[in-house]
Specification:
Blueprint: E1 23-26, E2 32-37, H1 61-75, E3 79-80, E4 90-92, E5 109-112, E6 117-122, E7 126-132, E8 137-143, H2 145-150, H3 152-162, E9 171-174, H4 187-196, E10 201-203, E11 209-211, H5 213-223, E12 228-231, H6 245-248, E13 257-263, H7 271-275
Parallel strand pairs: 3-6, 4-5, 9-12
Antiparallel strand pairs: 1-2, 2-13, 5-8, 6-13, 7-8, 7-9, 10-11
The chain binds zinc ion.
Residues 178-179, 181-182, 235, 237-238 line the site of zinc ion (ZN).
Length: 279
């Protein structure tokens, strides 16, 4: 058979990325699409099988970009990622040039107005998704132990308020991450973190010292004024749908999954509206 080169699906079909991936969807209000990818639906072989979204974990960058493209296709907008450095820096995705790029820069939280899709990469650390659905504002944050110590989610909330969000209208979801029964740490580390954020104090099922980072993050969101905080209660180490550095990544590399969020309202609910109101 013959095909016209460069036209239609036929020319690209053999190497095209999957056009749709499974998402564990969560509710952050009207107009907001939010959820978490799983290991399923991608192109990467073991040990990254299969929807690895992390650049810099040893996987082929071409495959990672194809996997990211499939997530973007699922959301209908290019998902923008950051280079996560266990800090508390926040970037505004609106300020970035349009189109696909590997990273918006070094940060551990992203915020944006309507029409911008954001992604945070994890494999045991805590992914947080945020939205003020009325004003069409969204955010995401990456909180590992260091991020909890630095209150990165508080910084993300402040950045959203800076964009026009109302603190008491914000909603948050604390996504899949290693739980307090699995995240064993040295005693002095538990003592240090729990001195700052008491809700992180935990012990493993064997009674050894541990940290409950998702509980700490939820407490920090409430302290920042977010009234509606939902915790999925899914442990990445125990639930093999998700990548887990502690389970799989100690001797071989492992992949990264993503929390993604997008507000898909019209211009009515975007920045212009927020700017038009006082208070
Ligand atoms: Zn667990």
């Amino acid at each position: 058979m013959t095909r016209s080169p460069g036209t239609g699906e036929g020319a690209r079909g053999a190497t095209a990325a999957p056009s749709h991936v499974p998402l564990v969807e969560v509710d952050l209000g009207p107009g907001v699409r939010a959820g978490f990818t799983t290991r399923a639906g991608g192109t990467s072989p073991a040990p990254w099988a299969s929807l690895d979204l992390g650049l810099g974990v040893g996987d082929d960058p071409g495959r990672v970009r194809a996997n990211r493209a499939a997530v973007s296709a699922t959301l209908g907008e290019p998902v923008r990622f950051m280079t996560q450095v266990h800090g508390r820096g926040v970037l505004v995705a609106d300020d970035a040039p349009p189109g696909v790029c590997d990273t918006l820069g070094e940060a551990d939280a992203l915020v944006a107005t309507s029409g911008h899709a954001l992604g945070v990469l994890v494999a045991d650390c805590v992914p947080v998704l945020l939205a003020d659905p009325e004003r069409g504002l969204v955010g995401c944050a990456h909180a590992g132990r260091r991020g909890v110590e630095l209150d990165v989610v508080g910084a993300a909330v402040d950045a959203l308020v800076g964009l026009g969000a109302r603190r008491d209208a914000l909603r948050a979801v604390v996504g899949p991450s290693v739980c307090g029964s699995c995240y064993e740490v040295p005693e002095d580390m538990r003592a240090g973190v729990a001195a700052q954020v008491p809700q992180t104090w935990a012990q493993t099922r064997a009674g050894t010292p541990a940290l409950d980072l998702p509980a700490g993050v939820a407490a920090q969101l409430l302290a920042a004024g977010v009234r509606r905080v939902e915790a999925l209660g899914v442990c990445t180490l125990e639930d093999e749908r998700f990548f887990s550095h502690r389970r799989d990544g100690r001797e071989t590399p492992t992949g990264r999954f993503a929390g993604v969020v997008l507000h898909r309202g019209g211009a009515r609910t975007a920045r212009g509206d927020a700017d038009g109101r006082v208070g």
